Amino acid sequence: MTTDAARHHGATPLPPGSTIGILGGGQLGRMLALAAARLGFKVHIYCPDAGGPAAQVADAELNAPYDNLKAVHAFASRCDVITYEFENIPSMSARTAATACPVRPRPKALDVAQDRVTEKTFIHDTAGVPVTGFRAVNNEFDAIRAARSLGLPSVLKTRRFGYDGKGQAIVKTESAIKTAYKELGGQDLILEAFVPFVREVSVVAARSVNGETASYPLIENVHKNHMLHTSVAPTRGDTGEAQKLAIKILEALDYIGVMATEFFQLEDGSLIVNEIAPRVHNSGHWTQDAGCVDQFELHIRAICGWPLGNVVPRHTVEMTNLVGTDVNDWQTIAKDPSAALHLYGKTDPRPGRKMGHVNRIKS
Amino acid sequence: MTTDAARHHGATPLPPGSTIGILGGGQLGRMLALAAARLGFKVHIYCPDAGGPAAQVADAELNAPYDNLKAVHAFASRCDVITYEFENIPSMSARTAATACPVRPRPKALDVAQDRVTEKTFIHDTAGVPVTGFRAVNNEFDAIRAARSLGLPSVLKTRRFGYDGKGQAIVKTESAIKTAYKELGGQDLILEAFVPFVREVSVVAARSVNGETASYPLIENVHKNHMLHTSVAPTRGDTGEAQKLAIKILEALDYIGVMATEFFQLEDGSLIVNEIAPRVHNSGHWTQDAGCVDQFELHIRAICGWPLGNVVPRHTVEMTNLVGTDVNDWQTIAKDPSAALHLYGKTDPRPGRKMGHVNRIKS
Fold first, then answer.
1. Is the pLDDT of residue A344 over 60?
2. Could you tell me the residue ranges of all domains in chain B?
3. pLDDT above 80: residue B186
4. A151 with A157: CB under 8 angstroms?
5. Which listed CATH number (3.30.230.10, 3.40.50.720, 3.30.1300.10, 3.30.470.20) goes with A199-361?
6. Which of A46, A233, B249, B328 has the highest CB neighbour count under 10 A?
7. What is the pLDDT of residue A167?
8. How does DSSP classify residue A195?
9. Are B306 and A40 within 8 A, CB to CB?
10. Is residue B1 very low, low, confident or very high in pLDDT (cuts 50, 70, 90)?
């Protein structure tokens, strides 16, 4: 037994008063910090810029670039456990932190999640979970060949650093592939088969230091301009199958913490993984007002070796993102008796910027 | 119309991103800061000692004695609104802060709540709400005379700075009065009639800048060693009458924010006010897991001129305080699917020290 979970099996949970270090300073770090505080933990934030959403509610912050290994090591030396709030933390930084204190999820989760080819290969070959057809693409001719194999339309994407629809193009013809290749080129790409899905769903699940797993029910997600717009849960459909697939991935990764698995669902109900996020996830924000342990507390419990607690929601909740100037509706939302408002402490409502979200209890 | 509420009637609510200053750095300040963060506010903490429960989750803290008027003024100058988390803030400090920015609740609430004679006189004479019989006591002979008028047993208390049963004694005989007087003497005292109550209940209610009021249902409280042990709400009994009395006091004080009113309930169901707390209150902690706006967010909404929102609980909740080494049960509590754990970031579980609480959803 050499896995992290195995090594920690039966280990003493991290007691209240311990210090949790978070790499990343955005809204996910903020909500993790708030949840950690409820359980009596102290939180330190590592991020490049001062005074961001997470640091506003943390006990301490260290500002340095993510790839400053000396700063990362110094930060980790003052913490009892390290986690991260976004998947583009350099994996070398996470490995450096791990020389000073436990890093959960393990840095390997970053390697897998940061590259779409590595991710899909791992999910399909190692975890044995269905993914969209894909081919790595290193030049324009690869792209054409991949399209002839996968069929058109298909989706050309950057392998790394894509999010919210950035770094991707749906291509319907071979000449469109050439145009898209020029726009996205100069970096490693992937061509993915277009999936004729009827809806997008996700599962937010966790695995603890001692191997305990827990999963919220199936979540239905609606995107707008390639960005998550609403999530509703529990939604109709077979939660069990999606949970089973998500937990297969968690176990294959020897994962510790909360992970989101996004699926395409086909007309026959079958599920194909679109991508995973090795962190708390926007599609899990509804859990904050569901009357059970929320995804932020669940992540803290998992990485601290606590019992995962109750993840069965008492309510059906609909989460709506407040993007850019949507946030200006806060006065109306504050009046709505079904609404819980969550704002991120960001000052400038730029277009496309996630400023907050609102959870509405439906039943 | 010269009251604070009247002057602000129709005023623009304080927008997210504004800075809320809290005088006091304990667990109530911590939970206020967490609630304020959810709504996108920044929080600054003023308290004598560094790194306390509230400062751990705040954007900034200033450490100075509460009676350092220069420091209080400097602190208030950097905030958009000031509030307080305990009632023993010197009223002169609150008035000093008010020269730099709005202080809510108004400093007058401190004057009233800090002195049991002023408090009971105000509640009875100005608000027209029943209180226990009482007499101010300036010497041993006053005490005897008061006892002959109010009857024995009665309760001798310090007029100021009493809490959790400290600074009081139940006296059953005139000679016991003399003994108790010697123990408590050297300060202004009050003798209160002993009320043969059948239970202790409280109401947590709020009044906003624009005069809107809101109240949670009736709460039943059980004390242990003179300290709150459990609160359950909603409890049986006529919530309406208790709410009506609490709101009469809020309005008589031209109060802004959350206030707790503690009542003795007699066998015939009638209610007598025991005391008020011009702040969020331990008997309102259950609201955090009741599926509505909780008392901390309600206070922030009230002092910022927001709509008060929904205070109708979706669940019946029982709150139990974790005092001293009770907190060592955190591992057991973390496993309980009905329990939500709230810890305060205090390191030393001294006897009688409130370390956290647990809310259990009963239905």
1. yes
2. 4-112, 133-193, 199-361
3. no
4. no
5. 3.30.470.20
6. A46
7. 84
8. P
9. no
10. very low
Strand (E) or helix (H) holding A257: strand A257-265
Q: Do A38 and B341 touch (CB under 8 A)?
A: yes
Q: Which of residues 13-72 of A touch B (CB under 8 A)?
A: 13, 15-17, 30, 33-34, 37-42, 51, 55-59
A-to-B residue pairs, Cβ atoms closer than 8 angstroms: 114
Interface test with B, best of A19, A34, A56 (most B CBs within 10 A): A56
pLDDT at residue A85 above 90? Answer: yes
For residue A186 the two structure tokens come to 């100069």
- Work out the angle at residue A60's Cα, subtended by the Cα atoms of residues A57 and A61, and round it to the nearest 5 degrees: 95
Taking the Cβ of residue B361 and every Cβ of chain A, the question of whether any pair is shorter than 8 Å is answered with yes
* B40, B312, B315: residue with CB nearest A343: B40
Tell me if chain B has a CB within 8 Å of the CB of A315: yes
Residues 6 or more apart whose Cβ sits within 8 Å of residue B280: B28, B31, B32, B85, B204, B258, B260, B295, B296, B299
- Among B243, B345, B265, B278, residue whose Cα is nearest residue B84: B278
Residues of A within 8 A of B306 (CB-CB) are 331, 334
Q: Looking at residues B261-270, what average pLDDT do you find?
A: 96
Give chain A's radius of gyration (CA, Å): 20
Tokens of residue B108, six digits: 């007058």
Q: Does domain A133-193 have CATH number 2.40.10.10?
A: no
The CATH code that applies to domain A4-114 is: 3.40.50.20
Q: Note the pLDDT of residue A186.
A: 75
The overall average pLDDT reported for chain A is 94
Q: Express each pLDDT in B271-318 by its tens digit.
A: 999 999 999 999 999 999 999 999 999 999 999 999 999 999 999 999
Beta bridge pairs of residue A170: A155
pLDDT (0 to 100) of residue B8:
46
Give chain B positions within 8 Å (CB) of A294. none
B107-136 mean pLDDT: 96
Question: Are the beta carbons of B331 and A13 separated by less than 8 Å?
Answer: yes
- Name the pLDDT band for B241 (thresholds 50, 70, 90): very high
Pairing of strands B199-207, A60-63: unpaired
Instruction: Determine the pLDDT at residue B184.
Output: 87
